[in-house]
Amino acid sequence: MSPELVNWLAFLALLLGVIAFVLEAIVFPGFGVSGIVGIILVGWGVLLLAVDVTQATAALVLALVATIVILVLGLRMMSRYNMWYKLTLQNKQNSKEGYVAPTPGLSLFTEKEGIALTPLRPSGSAEIEGHRLDVVTEGEFIHTGMRVKVIKVEGSRVVVKEIAVVE
Q1: Of the four listed, 5, 63, 99, 146, which is most buried by Cβ atoms within 10 Å?
Q2: Is residue 124 domain-shared with residue 54, that is, in the same domain?
Q3: Are 142 and 166 in contact (CB under 8 A)?
Q4: Which of 42, 51, 50 is nearest to 13 (CA)?
Q5: What are the DSSP E strand ranges found in 52-106?
């Protein structure tokens, strides 16, 4: 293989490695396939550019050690100057403030009847067997006080329909 071709191949490997890192950071967040491919391509590009394999391996190990040291020092500085709190969400959702987690086991309400507590257009609240639930209709409007029946439950979504009152 000619030296010019090796240089271009190394440049292409480094460029594709950087593109893989950018894809990992923006398009596919997490440590996945594109991150691993980026690491492999950048390492291969450095090995192709090196005069000696030992020299390239030493440079990669030195870069890894420097990265770990910088990461540890950065985390210490962030905790010392409370910079971590500027990057993370500190609010908590408490029941005292009105937050109510979705009720597990909503499927128990399937085929049960209740009363619309608010106008359902198409979402609102209904009382089903003594429990106040957030419900939705399939698009129709249901007035407050009308009798409703749960027709299906999809996760935390409770779907109701109006039932005719027989007098």
Answers
A1: 146
A2: no
A3: no
A4: 42
A5: none
Whether 107 is in a domain gets the answer yes
CB-based burial label for 32 (10 Å; 0-12, 13-18, 19+): exposed
The Cβ of residue 11 has, within 10 Å, a number of other Cβ atoms equal to 13
Region 92-103 average pLDDT: 68
133, 106 in Cβ contact below 8 A? yes
pLDDT, tens only, 109-165: 999 999 999 999 999 999 999 999 999 999 899 999 999 999 998 878 899 999 986
pLDDT at 115: 95
**Residue 144 shares a structural domain with residue 116:** yes
- pLDDT score of 103 more than 70: no
Whichever domain contains 124, its CATH number is 2.40.50.140
Same-domain status, 73 and 124? no
In terms of residue numbers, what domain contains 53? Answer: 3-86
Number of domains the chain contains: 2
Rounded CA-CA distance 109/123 in Å is 17
pLDDT digits 0-9 by tens, 3-59: 778 788 988 999 999 999 888 888 877 768 888 898 899 888 888 888 788 887 888
Q: Cα–Cα distance between 117 and 127 in angstroms, integer?
A: 6
Smallest Cα–Cα separation from 145: which of 161, 164, 126? Answer: 126
